[in-house]
Amino acid sequence: MIENPRLDLLIAEHGRTLTIVLVGIGLLALLATGWVAATPATSTTTQEVDQESIATETTTSAIVVEDGPWEEGTELEDSPVYVLSATPELTLTPETSVPTDETSVTHEVQVHHEAERDGSVFWDETEQQSRMSASVEDGVASSEATIDVEAVRDRQTELQEEFDGVGTIRTVVQVVVEYETGTYSGEQVLVTSLQTTEEAYWLEESLADSTEHSQTAQMEVQESPNTAVIGGLSLVAAIALAGAAVVVTRGPIDVDTARRSIHEHRYAEWISRGSIPMWVGDYHVALDSLEDVVDVAIDTNERVVHDEQRGLFAVVNGEVVYYYAERGQWEQTAWPELELGTQSAVDDEVDEPPTVPTPREDLSEDLPDPDDDDAWDQI
């Protein structure tokens, strides 16, 4: 474990409070992480609902009525042009795609003549060719209508003679689709020009159209959990709980020991470890703190010697020794601290106080001479 005297002092003075605060922060961060993950934010957005599509396409076909380029009875489908003499009738087959088979669809086929001059219509006429309710199967409503193109051509000729010199005649084919889906109803009008000559006819454009239906609604959309917030809270929880574990594992720490360690680290460049014999120096000056010893070392340009065995910090300056010891005076640091047990009197009612021998009396006979350089090796 990394030594940090300041951290040790903080733990020594406020260890219990730190543990409670860090554990509380960690638990709150874990609860907040779970809450953020379990309750993601929601937003309101506009979405299209009840979407339905109605699409109509019209195919053309004609049966050959006499031999010629084609055999009689041949069916021509979606031909770009039809020969009038070979195929005098044109069949239109509208097919409407619907959402469900319950949709009601009506197909109406019209031939529309109009007279126009300078781009403006001043007369028109509509001939209904067919109108029927289309049968719906597999989502497709279909029907058939047949146009007698020879009759249409004859009518065009009549109108051109009537409006000769007044305007031009234009003939169009219209397919009107009416539908009811249950949700939506509407109408599609498919229009294309019918061009005819004495020999042939054709439709200029395809008859097709599509319609989209939908409604808008306000929807609440659940967003993804905020990973940045979850990660941050998880990190806070991990750091807080790890800090609480560090406080617990480093404790208990003595406050005075922690403070002394701070001073030792602060003045480490002035302190050397070593052994200080009892006989060194003629004068021994006791100082109040380690800082005072370091100040003397700085003033005298000497080093502080730390005798760990005696618990002593001292500066030797000639015959004068400046020292600081937690155990008291210079003489009291001569011997290691001894823990002696108590003695009990024979009489259970009276407890005799323990007798602690002093170095000068009872221990003087057993312990070596403190002025001897090898005294500590003999202990």
UniProtKB/TrEMBL annotation:
<keyword id="KW-0472">Membrane</keyword>
<feature type="compositionally biased region" description="Acidic residues">
    <location>
        <begin position="363"/>
        <end position="379"/>
    </location>
</feature>
<dbReference type="InterPro" id="IPR035185">
    <property type="entry name" value="DUF5305"/>
</dbReference>
<feature type="compositionally biased region" description="Basic and acidic residues">
    <location>
        <begin position="109"/>
        <end position="119"/>
    </location>
</feature>
<protein>
    <recommendedName>
        <fullName>DUF5305 domain-containing protein</fullName>
    </recommendedName>
</protein>
<keyword id="KW-0812">Transmembrane</keyword>
<feature type="region of interest" description="Disordered">
    <location>
        <begin position="93"/>
        <end position="120"/>
    </location>
</feature>
<feature type="region of interest" description="Disordered">
    <location>
        <begin position="339"/>
        <end position="379"/>
    </location>
</feature>
<keyword id="KW-1133">Transmembrane helix</keyword>
<feature type="transmembrane region" description="Helical">
    <location>
        <begin position="228"/>
        <end position="249"/>
    </location>
</feature>
<dbReference type="Pfam" id="PF17231">
    <property type="entry name" value="DUF5305"/>
</dbReference>
<feature type="transmembrane region" description="Helical">
    <location>
        <begin position="20"/>
        <end position="38"/>
    </location>
</feature>
<feature type="compositionally biased region" description="Polar residues">
    <location>
        <begin position="93"/>
        <end position="107"/>
    </location>
</feature>
